[in-house]
Each structure stands twice: as C-alpha cells, then as structure tokens.
Amino acid sequence: MDLYFIRHAETVFNVEKKYYGVMNPPLTEQGIKRTITIANELSHLEFDQIYTSGLERTRQTAAIICRENQWSEKLIRSHPQLNEMNFGSWEGLTANQVAAVDSVAWANFMNEPFAIHPTGGESFASFKKRVLEEFSEIIKENKANSTLLFVGHLGALRLIIQHYFEPETDYFNIEFSKAALKNYILGE
User: Fold this and answer.
1) Residue 137, Cβ density class (10 Å: 0-12 exposed, 13-18 middle, ≥19 buried)
2) What is the pTM (predicted TM-score) of this model?
3) From CA 58, how far away is CA 176, in angstroms rounded?
4) pLDDT tens by residue, 126-151
5) 32: nearest Cα among 71, 76, 65
6) Which residues contact 114 (CB under 8 A, 6 or more apart)?
7) Which 3 state secondary structure label does DSSP give 71?
8) Separation of alpha carbons 164 and 88, rounded Å
9) How far is Cα 37 from Cα 127, in angstroms, rounded to an integer?
10) Could you give the 3-state DSSP secondary structure of residue 54?
11) Which of 140, 177, 176, 180 lies closest to 159, judged by CA?
C-alpha cells in the first residue's frame, strides 16, 4: 500500500501561533499557494481515495489538490475520528496567553505533555486511541495495492507516522510543515 501524507495548508491561526485543534480558521493565501505547489507534485499519481479529517482546513486542502489536478472530489472521504486533538479552553489562544491565564496548568502541561490536558480538552491517550483506531480501520478497508492520500493535522499525522513508520522517533521530533508531503509504503 502506497501512502501519502500531507499536513493541511497554513491557516490564519498558524500565523498567529494559536492552539486550534477543533476550530476552523480559514486558510491563508500563502497556504493556498503552497497547496497548489503540492498538487503539482502529486499530478503524476492516481489515488484510490483521499482521506481527510472532519475539519474544514483538511477538506479545503484536499479540494484544492483535486481541483488543481482535475480529479473528482468524490475521491475525498472525511473522517472526524482523524481530527486534531481538542485543546478545550486553550482553543484560539497562544502559548503566552495560556500561560498568562493559567500558569500552573501550562507549567504542568510543559512538564508532562502526554499526561496533562487543558480544561474541557481531550487527553493525549484518548486522542491517540481515536486516531490510530480510525487509521487502522481505513487501512483494512483498502486493498493492499491501493494508493491513498491522507490530508491531516500535525498531531494526528505524528501519531500515525510514529506508530507505523518511525517508532524510534520521538513524537515531537516528527516534522511536518504546513502542506508538506511524506510518502511511506505499508505492508512490504
């Protein structure tokens, strides 16, 4: 199985360095331009399916790729279980704003990012379970010779890449810039 992974295009909140797991800020013009460049890099491929999360930024990124390559948007399948982690009360805030509002919670999170989560947010364990179970189901649904594109979020993509392809790499060291492309073969 030939798998391609793209992080969604740059959003306004990326530029503002805000947490926005479940929010839907618009893509920037720069993000759209970068997505068009990625679409050109993918133009020689034929995908069996394109998977996104349920959030608009991934669906919009996938739609631009389809439009640029004159592929049917019927290839796109949205799966909310692939959504980014919910940052609860931190949604829409920068790290400095979070630290100013709740310095104790922020310090605890910085010391134990996999054990502490924002008020009203999702635990890392729950997030990881949700994403990996959904990814596993998608893989099972497809033929071994499928070529699939996943348009996702930094956190979700890191989970998948670490679990399936780079288990020796620290979660936070898996780099994925906005609208960046990675390719892996599964099952060989």
Assistant:
1) exposed
2) 0.94
3) 14
4) 999 999 999 999 999 999 999 999 99
5) 65
6) 124, 125
7) coil
8) 28
9) 31
10) coil
11) 176
Instruction: Say which residue the tokens 């995908």 belong to.
Output: 47
CA diameter of the chain:
51
- Look-up: residue for tokens 């349920």? 54
Domain 2-185 has CATH 3.40.50.1240: yes
For 41-71, b/e burial (b = at least 16 CB within 10 A) is ebeeeebebbbbbebbbbbbbbbbbbebeeb
Tokens of 140: 């099972």
User: E strands within the chain?
Assistant: 2-7, 49-52, 76-78, 147-152, 181-185
- Local confidence band at 186 (pLDDT 50, 70, 90 cut-offs): confident
22 and 48 Cβ atoms separated by less than 8 Å: no
Using alpha carbons, select from 49, 68, 34 the residue that is nearest to residue 176: 34
pLDDT tens readout for residues 66-82? 999 999 999 999 999 99
